[in-house]
Amino acid sequence: MMFYRYDRAKVFYSEIMIHFWMSDPTGCDEWALKQAADAAMDGIAILDHEETYRYVNRAHADLYGFDDPEALVGKDWRTLYGESEVERFESEVMPVLREAGEWRGEATGRRKDGREFTQELSLSLTDGGIVCVVRDVTERRERRKRLERYETAMQNIHDGVYMLDAEGRITWINKTAIEAFDSGYEREDLVGSFVTKILDDEDVEKCLSLIQELLREDPHGSRRCEIAIQTAYGDEIRCELNLSLRPFEDGEFRGTVGVVRDISGRKRREQQLSVLNRVLRHNLRNELNVIGGNAERLATELDDEHARPARLICEASEQIIDIAETARRIEAVLDRDDATTSVDVAAVVEERCADLRDAHPDATIAVETPSERRAIADESLGEAVERLVETAIGNPGAEPVVTVTVREADDRMEVRVADGGTGLPRSEIEVLFEDRETPLRHGRGLDMWFVKWLVDSYGGELDFERETPEGSVVVVRLRPASVAG
Asked: Looking at 272-380, which runs of residues are DSSP E strands?
């Protein structure tokens, strides 16, 4: 900015000197005048009464693509403008210049090679002719257009957007942040105020910590956190904040940009679902234990014919308790961070299938694995394998035969569980790949959902291949440990 002010001062000085010199050439030092004009970074030219160039400085020649300023001396100014711009000057600009003695505005110049550029032009009429001062503002104008486009976009997105300066004052805020967030504040209440007006000390410290992390590790990145906007009514709005740094200028921190999303509805639903899930699961287990215990007692006291309904009640109670336990495990999977560790997939499959053979002596469980194959997963992978194998055993044909294969395929590690029976029903498969369940289309249980969500958390994929009559092949594709991240 210092250089800019210095340059403008030189240009202003040059205009005064040129104007004074053309009015009274004997009253100033011509050498000093030429030195000032030649040194200016803006283009300066003098036209005589015939409107041809009498003097052109180096900056003016450079703007129009000429190597030598003398190449323009004696030329008509119209050679540096397009036909439509010449018509505009003659019909609009020159009449104002002759009447008022000066004109300032934007114009479109044309370089020697025919390319056009946007210029800021100042014309001053003197007794000796016309003084022209030109500055190329193409980049500034494009930057202004880009900023206008960005601001239009920011004003119309569905999230709140704000900017803070380096001291933490709000310098800009979009209309969504005012209209969609019922904070009780208008734009004029917030712009110019410190962000502490709407954030408490804890959230300010949280944001400062993220800013320091960005400055230290990732100046061009962003960080997320949850904050609570403190409203003018005394309550708060729970929000998710995506925080990034404003572009640096001369290596100095200039402030931050924040994108804010209202998540109060989501937090409310999460709390409601958590309470309902906890109460339902706890009460369900307790009541089913009572039902199952009494049914089992009845089964022992009744003869075989009348004990059968009691045994069915026991089995149904155990199945529902298993579903409740699976729901608890799913909740644990969804609450954790995505897996970044690795396990030996071959060893996990071997160990878990050995346990399953003991638990299901009537089933044939074959394992085909290499010596060691590591992939991105954790200890829960064994539980996923167990649920897939037990699902395959539960869908047998003539005899329960299950084959579990570990292999490398393309850039993934695959665990393939194949059954030799009727296969997993198509309805069970399709539900997993739809966006939602419907009353008429739903899975029979949660085992396959557990496997799908667990594999998703590993950054893997769950897929299905053959169906009847050969049976089903469920494929778990995992990222090899060597290509993690």
From this structure: 342-344, 364-368, 374-376
Q: Please work out, in degrees rounded to the nearest 5, the angle formed at the alpha carbon of residue 361 by the alpha carbons of 358 and 362.
A: 160
Q: Can you tell me the distance from the alpha carbon of 105 to that of 135, in angstroms, rounded to the nearest whole number? A: 11
**Percent helix, strand and coil across the chain, each rounded to 5?**
50, 25, 25
At 439 the pLDDT is 42
The C-alpha atoms of residue 414 and residue 460 are separated, in whole angstroms, by: 10
Q: How far apart are CA 280 and CA 67, in angstroms?
A: 84
Contact 243, 210 (CB under 8 A): yes
The DSSP symbol for 339 reads P
Q: What angle do CA 304, 310, 311 make, to 5 degrees?
A: 75
CA dist 312 and 139 (Å) reads 80
Question: Alpha-carbon distance 374 to 342, whole Å?
Answer: 6
Rounded CA gap, 445 and 391, in Å?
10
**What is the reported pTM?**
0.43
Q: How far is Cα 276 from Cα 283, in angstroms, rounded to an integer?
A: 10
| Sheet with strand 160-164: strands edge to edge | 170-173, 160-164, 256-262, 236-245, 222-230
Cα four-point dihedral sign 312, 316, 321, 323: positive
CB burial readout 433-453, b (16+ within 10 A) else e: eeeeeeeeeebeebbbbbbbb
CA–CA separation, 298 and 295 (whole Å) = 5
- Nearest Cα residue to 138 out of 108, 167, 168: 108
Distance (Å, whole) CA 282 – CA 270: 18
The tens digit of pLDDT for each residue in 323-356 reads 777 777 666 666 666 556 889 999 999 999 999 9
CA distances from 61 to 21, 72, 166 (A): 22, 7, 41
At residue 378, does pLDDT exceed 50?
Answer: yes
What lies within 8 Å, CB to CB, of 393 at 6+ separation is 360, 363, 365, 400, 402, 419
